[in-house]
Design a protein that fits this description.
The protein is mainly alpha-helical and 231 residues long. The protein folds into 3 domains: 140 residues, MFS general substrate transporter like domains (Growth Hormone, Chain: A, Up-down Bundle), CATH 1.20.1250; 47 residues; 41 residues. The chain is built from 11 helices and no strands. Helix 1 runs antiparallel to helix 2.
């Protein structure tokens, strides 16, 4: 029972750590590289659990790696989406992350139901999905906002033209100017100034609401249901 508890809880323990580290990491290496890294972590984790299903250490490491990938995905995907999406589609696209996670959880348990004698098939299938995701991230352009914050103006223009399917720079110039203004504000700010902004009502009120919501969700036992529902 204690070993099963460790296997079930390690990814939940590592995900918050990865989420905290992901912000500074993707600010340094870029959103696109962050997406690729989290897919590599997920792929290695699932592959370990698929190849060594009877090794407890492999299961522990695999669960840790998938937890790190999950934690990175929550903030990296949201950051990338909000920076590249137009205002009219931004909210819809951001909500796709938790929706797809819920669908993925359902598919995993559906696979566990179909392959009750050997769950390695589910691990291999999850590995396959992750590899597809990794390949698709190679086709994504970098965030124009991040490129502008690094002074890479021409690359930002090309990335924005690719995202908007524009054929001429003039078609995205107005939006690029808006991105440039946001990038300058970001360059003039620091992590300390970001924490100072939490004193503003428009910052701390939604933060309090969302944290209270998650406290209720977690204390209602949702993670326990997800971990032990296979039983």
């Amino acid at each position: 029972l204690s070993e099963a508890s460790w296997v079930g809880s390690l990814n939940l323990a590592s995900a918050p750590v990865a989420a905290l580290l992901a912000g500074p990491l993707i600010d340094r290496v870029g959103r696109r590289w962050g997406l690729q890294l989290l897919n590599v972590l997920l792929a290695v984790g699932w592959l370990l659990m698929a190849i060594f299903p009877l090794s407890l250490n492999a299961l522990y490491i695999g669960r840790l790696l998938t937890g790190y990938g999950l934690g990175m995905a929550m903030c990296t995907a949201a950051a990338y989406t909000t920076e590249i999406a137009s205002i009219s589609f931004r909210t819809i696209l951001v909500t796709f992350t938790p929706i797809m996670m819920a669908i993925g959880t359902f598919l995993a348990y559906l696979g566990a139901l179909l392959y009750q004698e050997s769950w390695t098939e589910v691990a291999y299938a999850s590995f396959g999905f992750t590899v597809v995701s990794l390949v698709l991230t190679l086709l994504l352009p970098e965030s124009p906002l991040w490129l502008l914050s690094r002074g890479r103006i021409e690359e930002a223009q090309r990335a924005l033209m690719s995202l908007r399917a524009a054929t001429a720079p003039e078609q995205v110039q107005e939006e690029l100017d808006s991105y440039s203004s946001r990038a300058k504000d970001r360059q003039n700010s620091s992590w300390l100034s970001s924490f100072r902004e939490l004193r503003l009502p428009q910052a701390y009120k939604p933060l309090i609401i969302i944290n209270v919501y998650f406290v209720f969700v977690l204390t209602c036992g949702v993670p326990l249901v997800i971990v032990y529902a296979v039983n």
